Structure formats: C-alpha cells, structure tokens
Amino acid sequence: MSWKRGLPLVAVASAFLVAMTATPAKAVFNPIGTEPTAPYAQPVDAAVPKRGCATTIADPKSPGSSIPAVQVIYAWHDGNGNNYATYVEKIAKIMDRIDWLLDNSTNYDQHVNFSCRTGFDTSTYNGYAQALVVPEKIEAGNLSGETGLGTIVADLAAAGYNDSPNRIYLVFEDFDGTATATEVGCTVSPCVASTDDWDSGTAGHELMHSMGAEHTYITEVPNATYGNDIMISQYNDWQWDQDFNTYYDPSELSATFYIDQYQGIGEPSPDYRKDNLADHPILTAPVCCDTGYNSDLLTAQERTIEANAPWSSPTGFSLSGAGWFQVTAPGPESGVSARYYDGRRSLTVNVQSHAEGVVSVTRKPSVTPGTRYRFFSRLTTNTSGSVKLRLSWYNSSNTPLSTNDSSTFALDSVWREYSVSAVAPAGAATVQISVVSPSGQNFAYFLDSLQLNQCTNGVTSDGCRLPHP
Fold first, then answer.
1. Residue 433, class by beta-carbon neighbours within 10 Å (0-12 exposed, 13-18 middle, 19+ buried)?
2. Where are the domains positioned within the chain?
C-alpha cells in the first residue's frame, strides 16, 4: 500500500518545518491544534451545530449493511496514556466542525455521515461524543518517538477495523504521530486518515485525502500548489474548493475533476483518475439552496471548457467583434499550449486591433433584480494586453437593459483572478458574462476558471466569496 502525506506541498522546506514543529519536546503530548479562520472566522464551539449520528450500530468493527460513514477513533498507547475521558467531547466538536465547514463552504445543504455505536444516551453531548468516538489502544506504539501510520493501520486491521470502502477511519492520535492518509481515494483496506494536530482544518484535510481529493496543484507548473481552500492551506483556510473546479462541485454531480494530472513531489507517477467529492458515498446528497460561502450559476463546461477537444470551438461560448478563439491546444508544460489553469481546458483568444472583441458565455443565467452578482475569471498572457470583465443585463424579452464593466486590467504571464460586481437593475431577468478586449490591440490571452456568484452568503462585505489574492 502507498502512504501519502497530507501536508500541502507549497515547498519542501515548509513541509519539513511543519513536521519538525509537530514533534513534542516533552513526554506529555498536547494534540490540540489551531482552527483555521479563513475565508471568515468559524463560530465558537457553542454555536457549531451538533451533526449527530447518521447511522448507529452495535459493533463499530462490524458495520454490516449500514450506510457508508466516517468512524472516528481515539488512538492511544502507553507512551502518553489513555486520556479518552478528557478529550472525547473535544474530538466530537472537531467532527461537528468538519461537518459545519462542509455545509458552509457552499450554498448547498450537504453533510458528513458519522457512524456511532449503541449503548449511549445521545441526547446529551457527552453521550453523543462517546457514541461517536471509539477508543483504541495502539499496542505497538513507539513510546519515545513518532508512531507511524503503518503501525496504526496494522493495529486497526488486527482489531477488526477493516471494513473499507464502507468506512473511512479518522484517527485522532494522542501521541507523537503524523497527519496523513493511507491513500488518496482509499482503494486499500482499512482506509485510514490520521492526525496528531487536532483541529477541523488538519483532520478535515486528511479525511478529504481519503475521500479522493489531492492537493490543489496548478497544472502548468509541476509541483506548485495554489488556492485558498482546505486542500492547500488547512492551517488557514477551511472551505472546500471555492471555484468548483478542482475536486468538489455540489451543483453538478456529473462533473468530475482530474485528481492529480501532474506528478507531485514524492509521487511515482501522475494520477489521471477523475472524481467529484460531492458525490462521495460518505456524504449526504447535496440540496440547493441554503446560505453558504460560495454559490455559482455556471455549469462545469462554462467554468472549465472541459467538454471540448483542443483546437476546437468551445461549446457554450461565443465571440463578437474583432478576433477569434479556440480551445487551447495541448503541449508541453513549458509551452503556451499547456496553460490549463485547472487541469482541464482553457480558451485561447486572439485579439485584433480594428474593433473591440467580446468573448461571452452564450447562456444567460436567471437573476433577481436588486441582488448583487459577481463574475470571476482567471486570465493570463505571454505578451501584454488589456481586458475588462462585463455584466450585461437583459429583461424577460431578452432586450438589453444596461451593462456594468470592471476597470481595465493589464494582463501578465501569471494566472490572476479578476472580477466585477454589480446589482441586477430593475426589470432584469438574465445576465450575460463577457471578457472584453478594447480595440487597438493585437495579442493573445488565455481564459479559464469562470464563475458567476449570487452574492447572498451574508458573511462577507458584499455577500460574495472573496477574490483570490
């Protein structure tokens, strides 16, 4: 079986630093971590909703025909003793928090299925915590150093915790251990994610590895990670895939994502599997719409141009004015043709000087007058040139009402996220989003990773997710 560390690979040095600082300097191990605070602060413990038990069984080692779920395990050994009674409610609250961060990542109602055991009064929080969290002694634990995941997995398997894929075992280590997972996507048994840094960011990150998420690699730069989500920075960011284009899209379960198209540090080869965590069996079916950090009104094709072959004309997009476009051609990582931001596809737009060029998503999503919307896109060029983003409002007869343009952006060779925000005017029924190149220019740019948010999350200043820095 293959072991994959769960730390984000921003740099080898930073990963090494995390590993070093996680090693305790004294015999008594303190596992309590620091909760991530971005994109906005999580509620205090008392305000985090209790997830509760999605399934309850007599023996957590024999789930039988019960639904797929997460089994939470408190692991201890003689090096630090059994502190189950001290920590059981803390671990349960971290699990409630993981469920909260999933549900609050988007405007979809979705939750994690937790497995509990019978014999406890789950109407009290302590009873719920004991039903949820099962203690397990790691007999072969290293008493004076790190206990590796292999030792934990062997102990769990010997004890009978080996019902994968019906269970993912999330292990909280009360000793010097490591934050990791047996395998991305867990095709092995038992399927184990572990953490010795107890907070929802780290534990949730490792759980998502077991579900199938990789680190958010930027495709055209091997081994480089990018993003503002839990799979790149579990120490700061708690939300899941804020662009709906890397590993999680609750709005379109048929949309799937390349798990790891390029070879990461320490990996024997790229992983060309495609997946969508929103359709994972340990999660409830996503239901639109509640209040959450991110919402999006586009389809996966409109965000990512995935359905079309390189060189072809893109389905769902149109161009007017000067210039021409195509789905970006394939090529080596160092070439212009490989500039697919999200591991899927991008558009190449060739700008001509004699007139304004307008690339639009052809479909016009429905809008509500008086509600704010924000259009995001990532753009880059190998030369130089300027564009602006546009929101064009239409009434129910498809008659144009007005437009809102962003400022003009000077593009460069880095993928940057740009956005424009406006309130839908009176009488508006639909909106069209466009990238506009002012006349007088001759250059080519690359367009990718579009989103159209309805700004109703209630927690940021304009109700929309925050733009990437």
1. buried
2. 4-288, 300-454
